[in-house]
TrEMBL record:
Keywords: Cell membrane, Membrane, Transmembrane, Transmembrane helix
Family membership noted in the UniProt record: Belongs to the chromate ion transporter (CHR) (TC 2.A.51) family.
Topology of the protein relative to the lipid bilayer: Multi-pass membrane protein
PANTHER family documented for this protein: CHROMATE ION TRANSPORTER (EUROFUNG) (PTHR33567)
Listed name of the protein: Chromate transporter
Location(s) in or outside the cell: Cell membrane
Transmembrane segments annotated in the record for this chain: 12-37, 86-108, 149-181, 201-222, 273-292, 298-320, 332-352, 364-394
InterPro entries, sorted: Chr_Tranpt_l_chain, Chromate_transpt
One protein family per Pfam: Chromate_transp
Keyword 4Fe-4S: no
Amino acid sequence: MGNKRDSQLKRWIEIFIVTLRLGLTSFGGPIAHLGYFHEEYVERRKWLDEKSYLDLVALSQFLPGPASSQTGIGIGVMRGGVVGGIIAFLGFSLPSAIALMIFATFLTTFGIEDSAAIKGLQVVAVAVVAKAVLGMAEKSTPNLRTKLIALFALLVTLLWQTAYAQIIAILLAGVVGLILFKATDKQTNQSTSEFPISHRVGYICLTLFFGFLMGLPILSGMVDLPWLTLFDSFYRSGSLVFGGGHVVLPLLEQEIVTAGWLTQQEFLTGFGATQAVPGPLFTFVAYIGAIINGWLGGFLSFLAIYLPAILLIIGVLPFWEALRNKPKIKGALIGVNASVVGILISALYTPIWTNAVQTTTDFALVAILFSMLAFLKLPSWSVVIAGIIGGLILF
C-alpha cells in the first residue's frame, strides 16, 4: 500500500514539474500550446498515443472554455487521476497568472496607462488576433459551407453587440453542423482509451458545473457582495465561451468594461501584456481581477474563469468513450469551429482594432508585427518586445 502511494506521489510530482516547465516556456497561444503538448506528452514521454491525444483535443475544442488548458488537464487526469488533472492545471496556468498580477500591480502603482510602451502593447494585440484568425480559418473553414457559417457568426456578433450574441451564434452553428455534416468522418478509425475517473465523479462535477452556472447569478442578486458579483461574471464567461482566450475577449469586454470596472484602455493594455507571458491566454483575467481588487481579486478571478473548465473536462471524460466516435458529434464540432472563426474576426474589429488602430502609424506598426508573426514565424515574445520598442519610437 505504501509503495503504491509513493508511486502515485512521484507521478504527481512528475506531472507538476513537467507542466510547470511548459507553463514557463510555452509562448504563442492555444494552437502553439497544443503543439508543445504533442511534442512533450506524445512524442517524448509517450503518456498517451496519437489518436487519444487528437480525440482529447477534439473534446476540448467542443467544450466551452480554454481548449489548450482543458487538453492539459485531461492528460493530467489520464496520468494521475483527478488530482493529476488539477496539478497539471496549476503547473501550466499559475506562472502566467502571477506574472500578469505583478504587471497589474506595476500598472496601477506607477500609473503608466498612457505610456507609449503600453500603446505598443495594444497594437501587439491586433497583430496576434489577426494571426489567430488566419490560422483558425485555414483549418476550420476549408469549404463554402463552413465559410458561410463563419460569415453568419461574424454578422451576428458584429451587429448584435451583447454578451449573448456569440453564445447564440455558436449554438446555431452547432445545430447547422449537426445537419450538414452528420455523415462526416464515418470512416474514421475508432479509438479507445481509459480515463481513471468513475461515472459518479463525472456526475458530481457536471452537477456542480450547472449548479454554479444557475445558482451564482441568483445568489449575487440576493447578496450585495462585490467579490461574489466578480466571481459570477467570470464563472459565466468561462462557462459560455468557445474557442479559447482570443474569443473570450468580447464576452469579457461586455462584462467588465460595460460595467465600468475597467476602462477600455486598461482592458486592451492587459490583453497586449498577456501576449508577453507564456501559458494560456485565459490567465488574462488575473490581470483584470488584480486591477479591480488587488491580488485577492486576481486569484479569485483566475479561479472563477477556470473552475467551469475543470468541472466540465473532468465531468465529461468518463462518458467520452461512448460519444467520441459518433459522426453527429463530429459534425456539430465542425459547425462550432467554423463559427469561432467568425467570432474571432468580429473581436478583431471591435474592440481591438477600433481602439488600437486610429492612425496610419498605428497601422504601419500592425503590419510590421503581423509580418513578424505570420511570415517570419518569430515567437510571440519577440513580437511583444518589438511592439514595445515600436511604441516608444513611434508614439
